[in-house]
Amino acid sequence: MGGVFKEGSKRHHDPFSMQTEFQRVMDSLEILAGSFFEPSLDPSSTNSVDFVKAYLNNGTVTRDPPPSRSWEEDIFSKSFKENHRASERSATMPRDYIFATMPQFPWYQNSAEAKNMTFNEIFADFYQQAKTSGHTFICRITKSMTDLKSCTSYADAWEPSDRVWDPTTLGDFLKLFAGKLPQQDGVVPNLLIAHKISVKEIEEHDLIDENITVASGDLHTRS
Are 46 and 38 in contact (CB under 8 A)? Predict the structure, then answer.
């Protein structure tokens, strides 16, 4: 922190800038403390204050082992995704981002053939396990975005694309999750599936005394 507020710098003589920098650092430390203890930790709690003091003074802070995850929890529980989506932690292999984070949830099991599977195959297997366990989510890149012709149903359209990039950091991996979907008896309700439509160009003079209608996915006019 000494490099931020050192004597002689313009920033040192700007009280507003100093306050902004200080608040930014403290906010970052509170997020780090929440990740160290519990994601839902109140920033004003004693544990959080002790963590910040230890960090600033090169001290030591300890924590109890985290409780086991319940079946109802997933990557969207307790701000797990929010706390780590900017993480620059890197792994040796892209698949390690799944194997290092998902086994904490009791409904997920590593595939026995994982060593011979690509990241996309492992991610697709994870998606299916999440779906059958009541933890369906939307992937940032779906199959309908990259290979629409292979989709035979609405369910196919929502599945992860097999062309998802290999993440290089934990944050990149978590960005693949767009959001969680509600389910009713294993069915995801009230979803709008966007698809291609054909559009016919209409000249301005053609619009006189005509009605524009949209039917069967085609845009056309009638007199």
Answer: no
Nearest to 218 by CA among 203, 202, 201, 199: 199
Q: What is the pLDDT of residues 149-181, one digit of tens each?
A: 888 887 788 889 999 989 999 999 999 998 887
DSSP string, the chain: -TTTS-TT-GGGG-HHHHHHHHHHHHHHHHHHHHHHS-TT--TTSHHHHHHHHHHHTT-----PPPPPPPTT--TTGGGHHHHHTT-----SSTTHHHHTTGGGSTT----TTGGGS-HHHHHHHHHHHHHHTT--EEESSBHHHH-GGG--SHHHHHSBPTTPPPPSSHHHHHTTEEEE---BTTB--S-PPP---EE----GGGGTT-EEEEETTEEEEE-
- Note whether 92 and 120 are within 8 A (CB): no
Model confidence pTM above 0.90:
no
Position 204 scores a pLDDT of: 61
